[in-house]
Amino acid sequence: MGLIAEELDEVKKLCEHVVQGSKLVSCVPTMVRVEIRRTSYKHLVVCIQFPADYPKSCIIIELKSKILSPKLLDGLTSICESEAKKLLGKPQVLPILKFVRNFIDENPLSCCYDEIASIRKKLITEADEFKLKQKNSTISIKVCQESYFLKAKILVPDEYPEQTVRLDEAETNLPPMFNRWIIAQSKEISRQCIEPPLFKKGKQSSKEIFQPKASLEPVVSFLVGQLRQLPKENCQFCKEKCLPPDPSGAEVNESAGKHVERVYCGHLFHLCCLITYMKTPPFKGGKRCPGCQQQIYHDKWRVGEGLAEKRWAHHEARQRELEEVADFLQ
Ligand SMILES: [Zn+2]
Ligand SMILES: [Zn+2]
């Protein structure tokens, strides 16, 4: 029996036992084809062919996957080729299959290879930190904008993207209201990536057409975007910068006039500016944000149009009275 035939017998006997999650699809001299699956998203097919002078030269490896990034597969193929070169003169198929399985286990972030590349390219600058920790499948990120920062540890679960990324140890030096809002909102963004909307859209039930989406890039993009934008934003009423250059100078008392408020559309106001703006006509059609013309909704301001009109009239009357008194006393 030739060397290849002997090796194929060995592969048939052992492959599914020694390479976890493997399925031998074909095992003939022209082609060995093995599926290796850790989860439905960490799944690839290894195709191996023998060159004429095998095992003096190394096996020809091709990796295929509908899920994993083609760039990652290219990289992994060349690592496998150099592994195979170490085995010249010896059986190479089983060691390479084991090597591929090991790679999937030891590099859990490979399921978001393209997202990570895109985040690095679009969102991260040299002043920031972006570190992959394959060992515990997490990404540490620290982004800076002026004197403000955001730090977060993001866990990519094994069943990603069917399960969302998890935000651990997220922290910023933005005022507490923004810190809370950013973290809550990023959780909401990741939830929406895997849960269908509650209401039906069109005739088809949303559940039938809904597919879980990758949540890493949407979440990181939101977090980084907020940190970049907030320190630059102006109050929509007085047009002054909302957050001070020194984060320790930010107003943290949530009922103070200079406390920064975020209204429904995302634009910012000082609390005192928001109150003045909301109390000033025109009231018709509801008060709209000067920045984007969207209606203003805010927890601290739930007043109907009619009441605002009355308050304004009352305020004006009182102002006139005060002016009369001032005139009288002069
Ligand atoms: Zn203002
Ligand atoms: Zn707005």
Mean pLDDT: 89
CATH architecture of the largest domain: Roll
Helix percentage: 25-40%
Low-confidence stretches: none
Structural class: alpha+beta
The backbone outline, from C-alpha atoms, is elongated
Separation, N- and C-terminal Cα atoms: 119 Å
Q: Work out the helix count.
A: 9
CATH class of the largest domain: Alpha Beta
Written description of the protein model:
This protein is of the alpha+beta class and 330 residues long. It folds into 3 domains: 3-106, Ubiquitin Conjugating Enzyme (Roll); 111-232, Ubiquitin Conjugating Enzyme (Roll); 241-330, no CATH class. It is built from 9 helices and 10 strands. The protein has helices at residues 3-18, 70-85, 93-106, 113-122, 176-194, 206-209, 216-229, 271-278, 305-329, and strands spanning 22-28, 31-39, 42-49, 60-64, 129-133, 138-145, 148-155, 166-172, 260-262, 268-270. It has a 4-stranded antiparallel β-sheet, with helices on one face. It has a 4-stranded antiparallel β-sheet with strand order 5-6-7-8, covered by helices on one side. Strand 2 and strand 3 form a beta hairpin. Helix 1 (3-18) packs parallel to helix 3. The longest helix has 25 residues, at 305-329. The N and C termini lie far apart (119 Å). The structure holds zinc ion (2 copies). Residues 235, 237-238, 240, 269-270, 273 line the site of one zinc ion.
